[in-house]
Specification:
279 residues; alpha/beta; Rossmann fold; 7-stranded mixed sheet; two-stranded antiparallel ribbon; globular
Length: 279
């Protein structure tokens, strides 16, 4: 479908007659990353778009691939889906989802491994790893080294930094998912814009003006979005509950999709509007 002028691939999971849940994936991802979670959520029609510039969605032609650009697009999609739509975001998608919720109140807000502080803030991934990743993206984009940005070694580095499971079979599957989909971006320019936005932003600036009830799902071992920041974000949101999984990192949607789906399903059911219940 076309959303605010942007051709958008939209993937549907769950009960088509249930209230909609719009789910936004993270940086360098696509709907594939959220599929294990989306397919398990009950009581919702889960709609997972490929963000413009990723997956099967073409890049923007009239705006940057940054928080403002994605917020405008996601707010238009939320309006198209109707007032009973809940909103979910994972990682960078949590920043966009919170910014959308601050301007166009969804029925409820779900943040999975939300980014509560910028990547260079104390407590996040800092030091050599952050500087090296940024340098690789900047240098490769400047020299049009697309093959470097799509190389499996970058995908493997993402697995190493984010996966915490000790299940060897699950870890191999996560690595295969990253290798398959990590390079699914449209252009180096659109990737670099999104990468810069993801590194510089967080959900916190918009949290205090979000009026929707919120659920935060965090991993206690998350090195991308550390737990201390999750508590600050939950407090800023006000009407929010933080659920933490002890032995999980930044890939709750891969490592614990059944747990996350149960939490989300119960939250959405408890926050259903009276007219939604009666309808």
């Amino acid at each position: 479908m076309t959303v605010d002028g942007a051709p958008t691939a939209l993937h549907e999971f769950g009960d088509p007659a249930a209230p909609p849940l719009l789910a936004l994936h993270g940086l360098r991802g696509s709907h594939h990353g959220l599929a294990p979670l989306a397919s398990r959520i009950t009581g919702a029609r889960v709609l997972v778009p490929d963000l413009p510039g990723f997956g099967a969605s073409a890049p923007f032609t009239d705006r940057a691939h940054d928080v403002a650009g994605y917020t405008r697009w996601a707010a238009a999609l939320l309006a198209d889906l109707g007032r009973d739509t809940a909103l979910l975001g994972h990682s960078f998608g949590s920043v966009v989802a919170t910014a959308v919720a601050a301007r166009a109140r969804p029925r409820a807000l779900v943040l999975v491994n939300p980014i509560a502080e910028a990547a260079d803030a104390a407590g996040g991934i800092t030091g050599l790893g952050t500087r090296l990743t940024a340098w690789v993206h900047e240098a490769a984009a400047a020299r049009s080294w697309d093959g470097v940005l799509r190389h499996r070694l970058l995908a493997d580095a993402a697995t190493v930094s984010m996966a915490t499971t000790r299940d060897a079979r699950l870890r191999r599957w996560i690595a295969a998912e990253h290798r398959t989909h990590f390079g699914g971006y449209a252009t180096t320019d659109s990737l670099l814009e999104a990468f810069r936005a993801a590194g510089a932003g967080s959900a916190l600036p918009w949290a205090r003006v979000v009026g929707a009830p919120a659920l935060l799902l965090a991993g206690a071992r998350d090195r991308v979005a550390p737990l201390a920041g999750q508590h600050r974000l939950a407090a800023a949101l006000g009407d929010a509950r933080l659920a933490v999984l002890p032995r999980t990192g930044h890939l709750v949607h891969y490592e614990a999709p059944a747990w996350a789906a149960r939490e989300i399903g119960a939250f959405l059911e408890a926050r259903a509007r009276p007219e939604a219940r009666s309808g």
